[in-house]
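Task: sequence design from structure.
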């Protein structure tokens, strides 16, 4: 069985980058931690909310790398000077990646009650009509 790629469709030109992005996203290995929601807040805006209880603002970083929103968390493990009788809450790191379409921009990020909210906006693309002159050869 042959694998269909976007390059297999002759009418879809220049989508190689999209195909690579989809493959990278499929391999990103986002596990189930931390849990998150994605909601549409208007016709042109979204909000990603991650449950990051136990993390401080300085434990988190938010970057956009090659059209991917990457949210990382790294807690300091201060257990060396503490004696636990039971340890059910471990210091844990995570990385969550979200692929952004062209025209989607990251707005502000707000931490509230153990939830990290990241707002996104999508600009409306302009309709462009271009007439190509045909030259005589």
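Answer:
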């Amino acid at each position: 069985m042959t694998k269909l790629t976007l390059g297999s469709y002759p009418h879809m030109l220049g989508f190689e980058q999209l195909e690579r992005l989809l493959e990278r996203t499929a391999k990103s290995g986002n596990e189930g931690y931390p849990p998150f929601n994605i909601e549409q807040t208007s016709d042109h805006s979204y909000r990603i909310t991650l449950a990051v209880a136990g993390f401080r603002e300085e434990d988190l970083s938010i970057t956009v790398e090659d059209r991917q929103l990457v949210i990382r968390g790294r807690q300091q493990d201060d257990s060396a000077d503490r004696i636990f009788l039971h340890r059910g809450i471990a210091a844990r790191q995570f990385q969550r990646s979200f692929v952004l379409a062209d025209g989607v921009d990251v707005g502000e990020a707000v931490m509230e009650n153990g939830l990290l909210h990241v707002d996104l906006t999508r600009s409306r693309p302009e309709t462009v009509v271009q007439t190509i002159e045909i030259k005589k050869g």
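The CA atoms of residues 54 and 89 lie 9 Å apart.
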